[in-house]
Amino acid sequence: MGGVSALLKRLEVKPTDDEYETIETSRWGNRDVYPIPHDKQTYGVYAYVSYWGTCGVCLSSWTIGSSLIGIGLTASQAMTSITIGMLIASVTAYLNGAPGAKHHLGYGMLARSAFGMWGSYFCIMLNVFQSFVFYGTQMYFGGQAFVL
């Protein structure tokens, strides 16, 4: 067991000086949702490209073209509709993320500015339900991959 505890000790995240450490956790905030100071921001171009690139590697992204062709679209119509759909999704993602990128706040914190402290729960629940649908879709496609 000595090897396991040594490994766990090496993997342990060391505490850092944090300007929010003295602020107590409440239902309205904790150090995970407050703005990240500039010197603590570690994401670079590689991290962003890697993060967004993984969205194109999921099973549902791989099946879009074949599904559109399966319902009767030609290959050029399918590519055009996918391109238009992705452009609309990209603009929406940019508009949703621009305030967060500028002020370094997450979705839940920004929802409070428009919907108030209690109304932001509605926005968060929309995200939760969207995640359920996405996860269910991915599980379905994963199950189909094992069946085939």
TrEMBL record:
One of its GO terms (cellular component) is plasma membrane. It is found in: Membrane. Gene3D superfamilies: Hydantoin permease. Its main location: membrane. The chain crosses the membrane at residues 49-71, 78-95, 115-135. The keyword Membrane applies. InterPro entries: Pur-cyt_permease (IPR001248), Uracil/uridine/allantoin_perm (IPR045225). Keywords: Membrane, Transmembrane, Transmembrane helix. Pfam families: Transp_cyt_pur. GO terms for molecular function: nucleobase transmembrane transporter activity. It is a multi-pass membrane protein. The keyword Membrane applies. Belongs to the purine-cytosine permease (2.A.39) family. This is Uncharacterized protein. It comes from Setomelanomma holmii.
